[in-house]
Amino acid sequence: MKKYEDIKTAICPKCGHEYTGRPALSRADNKTMICPDCGIHEALENIGVGKEEQNEILEIIHRSMREKDK
Ligand SMILES: [Zn+2]
Known about the structure:
Elements: E1 9-11, E2 18-20, E3 24-25, E4 33-34, H1 36-46, H2 51-69
Antiparallel strand pairs: 1-2, 3-4
The structure holds zinc ion.
């Protein structure tokens, strides 16, 4: 099991936002590292989820992540 202790800030080439934490591998070309949010977007798009629904799902994920931090 590899641990991701080396957390740096990076700029996501997909959305242009700064992010920290473990990046996601873009499904578009399988080599670009994108932010976790874009990774979720791509995964949802891949299974045919619409843009609005993607945002709703992301909001739910963010909410539950914040609750875990408490
Ligand atoms: Zn992004």
